[in-house]
Amino acid sequence: MARTTFKLAIVEVLDDLNEEDYLRFCDQLRDRREKPRVSRNNVEGKRRWEVAGVLVSTFTGCKAVQVTLDLLRQLNLNEEAEELAEALTGGSESCAVPLSATGCSTGRPSGDEAKRGGGCSKDSKSL
C-alpha cells in the first residue's frame, strides 16, 4: 500500500463525499462542542483540501484523524470512515485511531488519554 500522510488521507476521503455530505461534514465540524472548536470562516466556502488542512492544523495528526472519523460516523458515513482508517493502516504516519463507534474497542479511553480527550487503552484496535 502506498504511504500517505494524515492530511492526504483526509483529503481523499473528503473528495469522495458528494456535495451534500461534504456540506453536512463541514456543518458538523463547526458544531462540535469539544475544544478546540473550528469557526465558520475556517470551513465555509473552502475546498476539501483546505478543510483537511484546517483539521490537521487545528487538531494535529492523530487527533485530526479521530475527529474526522467521529464526524463521518455521526453522519452515518461509515464506509468512508472505514476507508480513512484503512488508508492509514501501514502508512508513513500511524497512531492509535479508534475504529469502533464508541471511540475504543474497550468502549473507554485509558486514564491520561481520557483527560486529554483521545486515545485508547493498549488493548484497543489501532492503526
Total count of helical runs of at least 4 residues: 7
Q: Give a short account of the largest sheet.
A: none
* CATH homologous superfamily placement of the largest domain: Death Domain, Fas
The CATH architecture of the largest domain comes to Orthogonal Bundle
For the record, give the distance between the C-alpha atoms at the N and C termini, rounded to a whole number.
Answer: 14 Å
CATH first level of the largest domain: which class? Mainly Alpha
What name does the CATH topology of the largest domain carry?
Death Domain, Fas
Topology:
Elements: H1 6-16, H2 19-30, H3 40-43, H4 48-59, H5 61-74, H6 78-88, H7 111-116
Helix pairs in contact: 1-4, 1-6, 4-5, 5-6
Region (Disordered): 102-127
Domain Pyrin: 1-90
Protein name: Pyrin domain-containing protein
Can you walk through the features of this model?
- With 127 residues, this protein is mostly helical.
- It folds into two domains: 6-93, Orthogonal Bundle (Death Domain, Fas), CATH 1.10.533; 96-127, no CATH class.
- The chain has seven helices and no strands.
- The protein has helices at residues 6-16, 19-30, 40-43, 48-59, 61-74, 78-88, 111-116.
- Helix 1 (6-16) runs antiparallel to helix 6 (78-88).
